[in-house]
Amino acid sequence: MTHSGDLVGIAVAERPVGLDVEKVDLGVDVDAVARVALTDAEVRELRGYDGVAKARAFTTYWTRKEAVVKATGEGLRGDLRAAVPDGVHVQDLDVGVDHRAAIAVVSGERPVVQVHDGAQLLG
Question: What single DSSP character describes residue 55?
Answer without folding.
Answer: H
